[in-house]
Predict the 3D structure of the following.
Amino acid sequence: MKPIFSKWRNLVPLLLAASLAGCAAQPGKPAQQAAGAGKATDFSEWPCLSYTLACGQIPNRKPVKQALAGPLGGDPARGKVFANERSKGNCVACHLIQGAEQPGSKGPDLSAYGTWDRSDAETYALVYDMRWRNPDTVMPTFGINQILNEQELRDVVAFLQSSK
């Protein structure tokens, strides 16, 4: 009488070897990376927004509390456009703001910012570089990195102040 599993005798070592190959991965790394089939991207050389977290080797600019020179002189209508424009201010990516079609929810709700009793100068400094208030913020540094120019910053501040 022939054993039932005789035809599978050659297949069992192959299955065992295949299952053990998956266990050879380094702890904490996917098997694909450990086997060398794919290399993980190394982001350690990239700068990060944080001034205090050790998340990159490239030094960041120091936080700046930028003073507002003269009267605000911003246009709220233009500021609304910049705040909603993905290639410029993009405030809507993280914040709920007036006129936003698909607002974010990571940052505070700014739809009634004008009722918060913050001065134009304080709001300007916060939009310019939030890190002077919160060193570990993920908010982009719009002024120091020249994402928005001087007039665009003033327009965004005017929009925020008019949001009531």
User: Anything to note?
Assistant: Residues 11-23 form the longest helix (13 residues). Residues 156 and 162 are 10 Å apart (CA to CA).
